[in-house]
Input
Amino acid sequence: MTILTDPPKESFRLSMLLYDTRYRSATIQAIAMIAFMLLAAWLINNAITNLNTLGKPMSFGFLGDTAGYDINQRLLDYDSQDSHLRAALIGLLNTLVVAVLGCITATIVGVFVGVMRLSNNWLIARIMTVYVETFRNVPVLLWIILAMAILIETLPMPRAFKGDTPTATMDLFNTVAVTNRGVYIPEPLFSRSLGDIHFLGDMALRFDVSMDLIAFLVVLGLSIFGMRKVIARANTIQEETGDRPKTWHVLLGLLFGPSIVLMIVLGFHLGYPELKGFNFRGGIHMRNSLIALWLALSLYTAAFIAEIVRAGILAISTGQSEAASALGLRPNRTMRLVILPQALRVIIPPMISNYLNLTKNSSLAIAVGYMDITGTLGGITMNQTGRELEGVMLLMLVYLAISLSISGLMNWYNNSVKLVER
Amino acid sequence: MKKTVLLGALTVAGLAAGAAAAGTLDDVKARGTLNCGVTTGLVGFAAPDADGVWGGFDVSMCRAVAAAVLGDSSAVEFVPTTGKTRFTALASGEIDMLARNTTWTFSRDVDLKFTFVGINYYDGQGFMVPKELGVSSATELDGATVCIQTGTTTELNLADFFRSNNISYEPVPIETNAEGQQQYLAGACDVYTTDASGLAATRATFEAPGDHVLLPEIISKEPLGPLVRHGDNEWGDVVRWTLNALVTAEELGVTSANIGEMSAGTNNPEINRLLGTEGTLGAMLGLDADWAKNAIMSGGNYGEIFAMNIGEETPIGLARGLNAQWTNGGLIYSPPFR
Output
């Protein structure tokens, strides 16, 4: 008979933190963590003490002070009597505008160029190679400045549209004015507008939401819901009878009909730009600072996206396209239905980095006088109030928040397209 | 990664704030050069010539201080700053003094923690427009596009002026004078606004200066002067009294031409105290006895510097006006050397 005894119960001793391999790594990590935090605390304390000796203690109170300066491009109401916080918000919106416009354009151009670069047509493929190599090998700041210089120097001044024999005329049946201060395009106006809703009263972060826009979004949502129903019904009929009913006219009607009715109800008309005094008035003014920044950022980033798209396509084995053509699919259908959906899995992750790059590169806006958040909060506000450390920290936080939101969104999309293993 | 960046910024800020504490005079002497912040280029005030040698009204101020402290007017490291970067450069200790068309205002003096040591140019904000626009007054500028340097007092004055006259405008923010000039000449803005002296200096570099007019309105007071950091009074005194020495020299008739014989001793005790042949004014500042003599010899007295760089004989062609000596009805006035 054997007697099984429990191994002697080990009691925990302090020395085990160092000599027992089970605990050692935890000990080292804890010590490293404490040392790191001490270093951080020392640096922060040092900065605060020095700022205090300089007579400028850390404070964010300056955000509530009157800004005193004007901003040309503002998506929300703003004048020079508003606070620095409001000016920062206007700048943030300008950053977001150019980032969103840039990301969309860069994606479209990039995918197009990336696919074209693989074309069998020698000329097209080479032209695309030249485009990619010129754009991605020159710093984006130079492209921005070049785009601005071209816009300023080659386009006519508003004054050239004046007089009995103007040297410049408006384009597209007198509706669009292209000047060296920007492009003026017609704006949509509603004579029976539903008005705006104001949020947050008189606070610095107040904003308006146009009821017209909400009405359009609701109607569009309903249209799309209706279209889905029609398509689902067509699918059922096709499965039962083998014949697919004609739906395109119904779909087209559903897509545009309700919106057009709404436009008539709201009294839709266009406001055209007109030359009054020194400048054009009315219409939407797309300043050349925005156009230059947008163009340069999109074309620059598109060159990188093109390479990512090309890499993604090349990563799909040739067997796939051979199989597709064996099934009788034409080349562009092969690309759209077989290759690209698979390539997306490779393309999306590096694409996120490029969207982030584009957004951060938009901080070069000051080179062309575009008032983004670096120009307002990180430029004029910082200069007028002398709050460099606070300003830079806020600025970093803002960019961090924007970048994390973009990558969060893109990761969510990536999860939805990635290979689901069964 | 994000944390390291934040820490890096804090370190820089911490070090920068630490460097700003005191002892600038000793630092300059030990270094053997003066770091002087100037504009990125405004002809007449501070601009490098074809050989890369800086010259101009503000530059002469830097050279005079270098001559007073180090005895060598060429021992200056010129640091070009924009309207936006100038204060950070000074606060962080990157430059010892700033001589860059900087307006003395309450908030810059009190809140931004700088010490303005005096006024070397009484200026005001003006507007320049092309003649062909046919504008004769700034109040006719409703709806105009205005080029404006960001981070300046002129930017705030502009907003106030248009607001109080109840007219609208479209600001085009620019970073440097050169950029403003390019946009203005290409017609991307109708109006260029900055200090009237700067406008005159800019216009002088145009191919056809006659095609542009300065509007009569002067919409602000812009007293320009050199400035140093708060909290280092010894250094502030050195820069302040160097400026005063140049002004006093003009008042007393001491010029770069006659300073040789004057410094041998005169029967005017104030000249003797100024030039170090009598009294110990230099030692009180912690400088050599002939500090003021060196400063005046570097570019002449205030009047000579004015005439040579921006005066009526130069292409910039500014009249003395408010900047004449008080004895001639101007505002230039130095406390006595006693």
Summary: The longest strand of chain A covers residues 182-185.
